[in-house]
Specification:
It contains 19 helices and 15 strands. The chain is of the alpha/beta class.
Length: about 450
Amino acid sequence: MQTKYQLDEKEIPKKWYNIMADLPNKPQPGLHPGTKQPLGPEDLAPLFPMALIEQEVSLEKYIDIPEEILDILTMWRPTPLFRAHRLEKAIGTKSKIYYKYEGVSPAGSHKPNTAVAQAYYNKKEGVKRLTTETGAGQWGSSLAMAGSILGLDVKVYMVKVSYEQKPYRRALMQAWGADVLASPSNQTQSGRSILEKSPDSQGSLGIAISEAVEEAAQNPEAKYALGSVLNHVLLHQTIIGEECIKQMAMTPDYPDVVIASAGGGSNFAGIAFPYLREKIAGKDIRVVAVEPTACPTLTKGEFSYDFGDTVGLTPMVKMYTLGHEFMPAGIHAGGLRYHGMAPIVSQLFHDNLIEAVSLEQAKIFEGAAVFAKAEGIIPAPESAHAVQGAIEEAKKYDAEGQSKTILFNLSGHGHFDMSAYTQYFTGNLEDSTLSEIKLKESLSSLPKV
């Protein structure tokens, strides 16, 4: 009845896996927001260092992880794989449930896997300052940590509703030396334009991206760092799945279903892409993305070109989107409140290589509470989507009289989200499901391409 499966530090994967090499259909190219022509490296140079631009467009199947990055990753990697014996017993399932736990990183989530890599490549090219956005604060705190380790100044535009809901996540960023502002702010033209229209705006990831991109583009010593969506970000996260494949080989099982929450796509890609490599090669595996009903990008969005930010400063990419002007409800899973989905994940969904489901906020906290009582770990609200997704898959198979092996990515802990749990336990947590009227209104803002 082994519970933990651990790798030695020397077994940390030395290469990232680039799923672009194996995709049956490649995503459409990104377009310049002004000319609507395919992007070239020179269009991205004001925002990203050349090494990351090269990774963004690479078709190489594997990309070496520099020794300097691996050295920093040993602070928390390899992360453990758990067999959820107690959860299985709690829900009475015949299926076997495993989870990869990324909450052991100093920032408490999977986000440092790419934060360290992005900070490293920027530092190597002489960048002094990074600007970024954050929702719940997991990405902002991860980049703040990476900046602290590598000696870069970091400025974070934090979505206002999360800035107010999660003061300790904000304090964590400040402890690592980052400058944190509530977004929309009055420090950028993008922020001021939003506040002029909506003075009480709760903010969104799209707005925060606009502010961070605007500042980076105007400062020759600064670059922009993004915590999800882009190809190079998803690439850096595949270290999760590559480790997991080694760890699952230590068990008597192989996953029938791989599950992860999905907001922009980074933690989903992290565990799913290496297994999708096996699926594309012929393995019989289901891969499921779980998103909130308040922001159901894959399950209700349109597969279309759209801006990555609210104001329209970023390139247009072909993705599942709810419209760049979409304003999500203030759910506690702040990292899943993004209007779009990574182009690669979108293409996979469009090609029926992955599935997607959406869950209500109360339901995911119900699953999180069951998991916490059984396994002892408090999941982040984002990660709780994968927890409840796994529970529902297990119950479905039980109803069908089947026993399967289910693997999910527990992308982070919820130690900074206890106010959300307090609302759930006191019965004050509100559900939010996107209405068809609001969806239609939001999709009307899609650019004409």
